Amino acid sequence: MTAMETCSGPAVSHLTGLDMRHIRLCPAIAFNQIVGGRYKLHILCVLHRGPARFGEIGRSLLHGGLGKPITPRILSRELKELEERGLVSRHAYPVVPKKVEYRLAAQGEALLPILAAIVRWGATGAHEQILKVA
Amino acid sequence: MTAMETCSGPAVSHLTGLDMRHIRLCPAIAFNQIVGGRYKLHILCVLHRGPARFGEIGRSLLHGGLGKPITPRILSRELKELEERGLVSRHAYPVVPKKVEYRLAAQGEALLPILAAIVRWGATGAHEQILKVA
DNA sequence: ATCCTTTTTGTCCGTATTTACGATTTCGTA
DNA sequence: TACGAAATCGTAAATACGGACAAAAAGGAT
């Protein structure tokens, strides 16, 4: 128990061997705050393989999900939050019908290693076992 | 756009190069369902460096957190859920006052690579930048 | 007999998150 | 002119989530 430590451990993280002395906020908590909620992580998951439009994202959220489609209202809010935090960027084309593309921005790309770790974990089937989604 | 694909991409994930054909549920969604909420990830973070007792965990959640302590009621609920899902294991010692130790179980250990990725991400300060926690 | 510690649970309540539903904008098309 | 597609937002209802509070068990200490 050192005086200064984050949830990830003392000055030097056991998990990574990295010096965490300069970090104030637990990364795990922050991660939850940033991509917590029902859809944000899934949205980034969809965007990781390329830009997508509003409607496309909505439809993609059905694949691999638990059935219910996201309502446009919420997709709009989620995207706006992700944009405000620099995780995704928005590109509107002045055509009719309106066309808006979303893609991963810098802060979003920075999350890809985490996403990859999640996918690797998922590839073992552990998640389906835990949730009994055989 | 193949017929069978998860949110992580088509049959073979771009992100990891792994074959995902046998996976039904998007790992990202499952991850949220399993360790979503305010405390679960943080609890695993605390346990990753060794067993801890009920009270210890509660106190540890203050470090690196956003100030407020978790109430015993909630800590109890969270731990029970994590236990039911096989992420942590519970060991009660028949002493007075009661002593109960929690530690990572198999399914919890399987999450460590993800936790490590989150800590590495946090070590860059990206999370504090996004949340403006200068 | 009463208090203490540690862990756990029951019940109620307030807030935050999600949803449903509709309105709005824009300009090509029928 | 009326309609349609795509994206977005306003408002109110429904649900989930986190929190407050007190109580219970269990035996040693005062």
Q: Explain this structure to me?
A:
- The structure is a homodimer of 134-residue chains.
- Chain A has 134 residues and is mostly helical.
- Chain A contains 7 helices and 3 strands; from the N terminus they run H-H-E-H-H-E-E-H-H-H.
- Chain A has 2 domains: 27 residues, no CATH class; 95 residues, Orthogonal Bundle (Arc Repressor Mutant, subunit A), CATH 1.10.10.10.
- Helices cover 43% and strands 10% of the residues of chain A.
- A 3-stranded antiparallel beta sheet of chain A has the order 1-3-2.
- The radius of gyration of chain A is 18 Å and the shape is globular.
- Chains A and B meet through helix 1, helix 2, helix 6 and helix 7 of A and helix 1, helix 2, helix 6 and helix 7 of B.
- Chain B binds a DNA duplex (30 and 30 nucleotides) through helix 4.
Q: Helicity level of chain A, as a percent range?
A: 40-55%
Indicate the CATH topology of the largest domain in chain A.
Answer: Arc Repressor Mutant, subunit A
Oligomeric status: homodimer
| Greatest interface (CB-CB under 8 A), with counts per chain | A-B, 68 and 68 residues
In CATH terms, the superfamily of the largest domain in chain A is Winged helix-like DNA-binding domain superfamily/Winged helix DNA-binding domain
Gyration radius from CA atoms of chain A, angstroms: 18 Å
Order of helices and strands of chain A: HHEHHEEHHH
Q: Helical element count of chain A?
A: 7
Biggest β-sheet strands, sense, barrel of chain A: 3 strands, antiparallel
Enumerate the strands of the largest sheet of chain A in spatial order, edge to edge or round the barrel. Answer: 1-3-2
CATH architecture of the largest domain in chain A: Orthogonal Bundle
Tally of structural domains of chain A? 2
Residue stretches of chain A low in confidence (pLDDT < 50, at least 5 long) are none
Alpha-carbon distance between the two ends of chain A: 42 Å
